[in-house]
């Protein structure tokens, strides 16, 4: 079919708006519309089209107006009526009262929608919703960009609040007479002793052309600033090691449980260092299932967000084992969209989705046999709010001000392995973002043998619990000098679990490995699964 023009006229024949889709002059359109008035006056109102010797008029009356499509006589009348119906829907979308002034006010939108429906005289395969989206210029990329901008604003607001808390903390320390940390001193000196090469070049360029007296004065002041920074850093380090800074000390007359040995036990304690992992032994084929969990948990234990990411790695150290394909266990649902599976580009994805088999796309190739780990499958799952399905360790905290000294808090931490995980966790580290040597574990509230593992000027205080078994809970308490409660949060939690020949947190596992050249040949393999906390925070 070929649509020549689309018009809206009054019942008396007055043209209100018209759009030509082929080469037609305005006079020719006016002539055809005039002919239409003569034809429509002589037929029954039940008809929806009329013809003359040149064109066909497909029309629809609404209120005191006509919506008219002019087509050639060879066009399909069924398609013409379908196109007319779509035109009618777009007109109804923009008009409420069908008033002539309203038609003129919305003429641009109406004609634009006509242009979306008809291109070069032929109808586009569109729905009314698509037409409206095109006219309003709805864009997925634009919505994504708006979300990104909102996230940036949220991050900026969070950073502003964090800086406000930092300023409040420093003001509190100043009022209490506590000495500033090395980091604070460096921050205060950043303008006078900037390490920015552009600033340094500007100073050097200026003073290279100055008088000899100005050059000597600049050199002397620069050396004094460096000496002052070194002395203040050394003084601060000495105060921490000796534990005799001018900061607030607990009253000697009222010492809480374990507080008598705070300064002596924590002096010069190094920062906690993660133990280096040894490379697992590979007997031929080693499958490693590595999963990391992220979560944000409120202080009372409510789950704000959770996420689990996993990767299956393959290590082969013998050439005769390179022709291998892995079959996952029956309980793995590879069509589960919540897990968001993603295979390596060289893995046959169709075979994986149809039969849970991880094999190479090309049967002529083999997996690398250099005993190096190769990620062949990844997955990711995001938990819902207050859903503990992806939470291996449930944590809640209680914080109360100490009655013995101002600025000191008593904190109790309770944690347990959730029923959804039901495996032991080792090397549980709680990191409190406070730098102070006024901290100790409560001797009468520590059923998990928690201990202070280290004090770091950047990360804060690390408290370590060796392990916790499934089905049991752990509790420990500590006293800490923090100035205000929010300074102790977010509290970061790290833990890990290693298991041999067992599935991961999401129950993903390998049932068998066979030779890609012969399914009857089964290859021996070992499985190592690990779980670690990546960003597990208490806010």
TrEMBL record:
Its main location: cytoplasm. Residues 137-175 form a coiled coil. Residues 249-278 are annotated as: Disordered. Keywords: Coiled coil, Cytoplasm, Cytoplasmic vesicle, ER-Golgi transport, Golgi apparatus, Membrane, Protein transport, Transport. Residues 282-539 form the MHD domain. It is found in: Cytoplasm; Cytoplasmic vesicle, COPI-coated vesicle membrane; Golgi apparatus membrane. It is a peripheral membrane protein. One of its GO terms (biological process) is protein transport. Oligomeric complex that consists of at least the alpha, beta, beta', gamma, delta, epsilon and zeta subunits. The coatomer is a cytosolic protein complex that binds to dilysine motifs and reversibly associates with Golgi non-clathrin-coated vesicles, which further mediate biosynthetic protein transport from the ER, via the Golgi up to the trans Golgi network. Coatomer complex is required for budding from Golgi membranes, and is essential for the retrograde Golgi-to-ER transport of dilysine-tagged proteins. This is Coatomer subunit delta. It comes from Tetrapisispora phaffii (strain ATCC 24235 / CBS 4417 / NBRC 1672 / NRRL Y-8282 / UCD 70-5).
């Amino acid at each position: 079919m070929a649509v020549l023009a689309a018009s809206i006229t009054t019942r008396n024949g007055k043209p209100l708006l018209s759009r030509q889709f082929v080469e037609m002059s305005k006079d020719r359109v006016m002539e055809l519309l005039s002919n239409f008035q003569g034809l429509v006056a002589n037929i029954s109102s039940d008809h929806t089209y009329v013809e003359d010797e040149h064109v066909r008029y497909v029309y629809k009356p609404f209120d005191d107006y006509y919506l008219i499509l002019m087509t050639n006589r060879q066009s399909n009348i069924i398609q013409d009526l379908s196109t007319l119906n779509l035109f009618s829907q777009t007109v109804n979308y923009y008009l409420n009262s069908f008033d002539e002034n309203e038609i003129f006010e919305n003429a641009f939108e109406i004609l634009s929608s006509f242009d979306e429906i008809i291109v070069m005289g032929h109808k586009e395969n569109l729905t009314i919703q698509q037409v409206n989206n095109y006219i309003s210029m709805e864009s997925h990329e634009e919505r994504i960009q708006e979300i990104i901008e909102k996230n940036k604003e949220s991050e900026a607001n969070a950073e502003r609040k964090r800086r406000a808390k930092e300023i409040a903390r420093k003001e509190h320390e100043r009022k209490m007479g506590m000495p500033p940390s090395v980091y604070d001193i460096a921050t205060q000196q950043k303008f006078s002793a900037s390490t920015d090469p552009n600033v340094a070049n500007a100073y050097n360029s200026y003073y290279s052309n100055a008088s000899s007296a100005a050059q000597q004065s600049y050199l002397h002041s620069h050396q004094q600033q460096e000496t002052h920074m070194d002395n203040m850093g050394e003084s601060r380090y000495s105060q921490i090691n000796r534990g005799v800074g001018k900061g607030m000390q607990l009253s000697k007359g009222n010492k809480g449980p374990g507080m008598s040995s705070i300064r002596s036990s924590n002096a010069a304690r190094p920062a906690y260092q993660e133990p280096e992992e040894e490379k697992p032994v590979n007997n031929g084929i080693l499958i490693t299932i590595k999963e990391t969990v992220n979560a944000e948990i409120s202080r009372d234990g409510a789950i704000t967000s959770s996420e689990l990411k996993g990767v299956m790695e393959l290590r082969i150290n013998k050439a005769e084992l390179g022709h291998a394909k892995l079959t996952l266990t029956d309980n793995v649902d590879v069509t589960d969209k919540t897990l968001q599976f993603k295979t390596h580009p060289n893995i046959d994805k169709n075979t994986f989705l149809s039969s849970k088999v991880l094999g190479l796309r090309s049967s002529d190739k083999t997996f690398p046999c250099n005993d190096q780990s190769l990620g062949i499958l990844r997955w990711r799952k995001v938990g819902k709010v207050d859903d503990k399905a992806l939470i291996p360790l449930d944590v809640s905290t209680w914080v109360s001000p100490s009655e013995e000294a101002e600025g000191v808090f008593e904190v109790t931490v309770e944690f347990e392995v959730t029923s959804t995980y039901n495996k032991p966790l080792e090397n549980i580290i709680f990191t409190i973002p406070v730098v102070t040597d006024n901290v100790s574990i409560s001797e009468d509230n520590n059923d998990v043998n928690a201990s202070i593992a280290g004090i770091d000027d950047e990360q804060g205080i690390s408290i370590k619990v060796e392990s916790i078994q499934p089905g049991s809970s752990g509790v420990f308490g500590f006293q800490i000098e923090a100035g205000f409660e929010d300074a102790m949060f977010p509290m970061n939690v790290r833990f890990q679990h290693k298991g041999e020949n067992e599935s991961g947190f999401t129950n993903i596992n390998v049932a068998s490995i066979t030779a890609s050249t012969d399914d009857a040949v089964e290859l021996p393999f070992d499985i190592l699964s690990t779980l670690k906390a990546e960003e597990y925070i208490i806010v």
